Amino acid sequence: MNGRRRFGLRGKLLLLLLGFGVVPLTAAILLVYRSSRAAITEQAENALRDLAAQQAVHLDTELRRQRLLLRTIVGQLTVADSAGASAAQLAAALRQALPEDGVFDGLRLVSAGGEILVDVALRDVEPHWPSEAPAADWATHRVELHREGDQVLAYVVGLGQGENASAAWLEGHVRAADFPRLFSMPPHLMAGAELGVLDEAGNPIFVAHEHGLNQVVAGSVGRLPDTAIVVRGGTQRAPFMVAFAPAEDMDWYVAAVLPLDVALAPVSRIRNLALGGTAILVALLVVTSAMAARTVTTPLAQLADAVQEFGRSESFAPVRQRSQDEVGSLVRSFNRMAQDLVRSREEIERLHEAELERTHQLATVGELASGVAHEIRNPLTGVMGAIELALKRIPQDDPSRPLLNEAEMQLRRIEATTTQLLRYARPPELREVVVDANLLVDRTIRVIEPQARTGRVALVAEPTAEPVLVRVDPEQVVQVLVNLGLNALQAMTDGGRLTLRVVRRDGSVEVAVIDTGLGVPPDVRRDIFRPFFTTKHQGTGLGLSISQQLIERHGGALRLEETPGGGATFVVVLPLQEEGESS
Ligand code: ADP
Question: Is the C-beta atom of 539 inside 6 A of ligand 1?
């Protein structure tokens, strides 16, 4: 069994099935994955931009509210201060003025000259006052927010109203930790998103989750635009998308950062699902492909083995048919074909044996005939000469004359038979010439015409329109045709029609001798070419066997064919001599 051949077909089938299954599947998954990824990324960008914009609005509103609050307080303090209130009274007034859950840790009232008038810590922690007063243009910016050092602090500074406008300001101190409360920015408004506040140049003022935003801002932000935008940043291994939205009333921006892997988490779920699904499908495909390949290749391999075995041993064991599909029908056809072949082989062997037997018989008959003929011929010639002499000498009315005539006739028959026998044993030399087969037919007709007329048989010649050349000994072929013609005439006891038809075939010429006589009964068809086989009272049974022998010596064949409508058809096949062919 050939392992490589098996693998070849199975491997190819497997590859084909996998190729048609896995490639389109993978392409489809890839396509779905890519489009989902693009859609989800776009969605995340939009959501992030909306978040940044909303937070910018919120920040703006919140700062306005705090400013309003400080202005109110400043208004009250200005009244209290002008009324000559003490520091303790001012502090109490400040404490009272602020709401309990406000964002300020402490308030400080500073005179226009920078002298601290009053300090209030509003909570348990000590306020972290800035080392120096903010240098703000109070005339235009009535409220400022500041940052100090790397610790982020925010100050809301209210400027006195009216006459005291440049006399004092109020500092509100907000701790960094309280910034989210101030700006209402819970760390995870959007799952995974981080929020921060940047100044116009992109420097972080406040970052809710400093880590990510600082990284992104450092690398990706230049001067920021007036509308909300989304940019990509971060490192290749940890990429982010960042949305920036300007707060309306100031130069600040709210930034919202979302790590890409968080944004694409749903996609990665899809991808994992798709990968898992693909793996399962591929496994299923491999198994089913292997099974499919097996169902095709196993019977094919068995078939191939059976063919080899059949060729080698000439014996045949039918291959088992496992299925009703195309492979099954192939197996069935092979079994049928092999059985036919076995039968044909047997038939050929049988024919071969018969042929051998015939050859053997012919050889024996030939030797015998030539021996006997020689022995008979000489005394026969002597006896015939004696009878001839006797007939010449006795008077015409001698009563023994009819007896002698009969004896002479019988002796002539014996002589004819011995001549035939001798010809059979030693066929005459071939004197081949190139001749038109139609001419041979003409000559035959001329020879048998008298007998045909006597037997009331119509002779019909059907020559070809063009000459058909054969390279033969014309005497011998005419002798064969005459012999066939005479046999035919003898078979038409009540008259009839004898046709001699010339047909040109591919590479050969056929001369058919067709009669309307008794025909050859099926049970003797195989015997008529055997020497000495005859159904006639006075037949020798040598005519057909000698004819066959002569034609075969020309490289042709003589055969009996079916004759529709009764009668017999003998066909002489001769090799065609192509025109221009060397003779
Ligand atoms: P013979 O003519 O001496 O019998 P052949 O060899 O010529 O010997 O013929 C053998 C036998 O074939 C004949 O006896 C006859 O039975 C049969 N045969 C030959 N030609 C015809 C024919 N045209 N029609 C019917 N039978 C024929």
Answer: yes
Beta strands in 422-505 (DSSP E): 433-436, 457-462, 469-472, 496-504
508 assigned to some structural domain: yes
C-beta of residue 574 within 8 angstroms of C-beta of residue 504: no
The yes-or-no verdict on residue 287 having pLDDT over 90 is: no
Handedness of CA 381, 382, 387, 393 (dihedral sign): positive
Which residues, listed in sequence order, are joined to residue 561 by a DSSP beta bridge?
569
* 175-214 confidence digits (pLDDT tens): 656 666 666 666 556 777 777 777 776 776 666 655 555 5
* Pairing label, strands 154-159, 168-174: antiparallel
Q: Which residues contact 328 (CB under 8 A, 6 or more apart)?
A: 299, 321, 322
Q: In what order do the strands lie in the sheet with 168-174?
A: 116-121, 106-111, 168-174, 154-159
| Number of domains composing the chain | 1
Please state at what angle helix 326-393 crosses helix 265-313, rounded to 10 degrees: 20
Task: Return the closest-CA partner of residue 71 out of 154, 144, 175, 142.
Answer: 142
The 3-state secondary structure of 333-349 reads HHHHHHHHHHHHHHHHH
Better-scored residue on pLDDT, 315 or 445: 445
* Cα 14 from Cα 537, distance rounded (Å): 77
Domain containing residue 440: CATH number: 3.30.565.10
Ligand 1: nearest atom to the Cα of 546: 6
- What is the whole-number distance in angstroms between the Cα of residue 534 and the centre of ligand 1? 6
Mutate to test the pocket of ligand 1, among 499, 535, 544, 560 (most ligand atoms within 8 A of CB): 544
pLDDT digits (tens, 9 = 90+) for 354-398: 878 877 877 777 777 777 777 888 888 889 999 999 999 999 889
Q: How far is CA 517 from the centre of its chain?
A: 64
Tell me, yes or no, whether 318 lies in a domain. no
Question: Measured from the CB, is residue 577 less than 6 Å from ligand 1?
Answer: no
Q: Which of 421, 424, 487 to mutate to test the pocket of ligand 1 (most atoms within 8 A of CB)?
A: 487
Q: 379 C-alpha to center of ligand 1: Å? A: 30
User: pTM of the prediction?
Assistant: 0.45
Whose CA is closest to 227, among 60, 41, 53?
53
Q: Residue 258 domain-assigned?
A: no
- Interval between CA 268 and ligand 1 midpoint (Å): 97
Whether 518 lines ligand 1, by a CB cut-off of 6 Å, is yes
* H helices present in 394-456, as ranges: 401-425, 437-454
**E runs forming strands in 275-412:** none
DSSP state of 556: -
How many residues belong to the chain?
583
* Residue 123 CB less than 6 A away from ligand 1: no
- The answer to whether the CB of 249 falls within 8 A of the CB of 60 is yes
What is the pairing mode between strands 457-462 and 496-504? parallel
With contact defined as beta carbons under 8 Å apart, do 502 and 509 qualify? yes
**Residue range(s) defining the domain that contains residue 499:** 433-575
- Asked if residue 513 has its Cβ within 6 Å of ligand 1, the reply is no
Q: Is residue 350 part of a domain?
A: no
Q: Round to whole Å and give the CA distance between 225 and 246.
A: 8
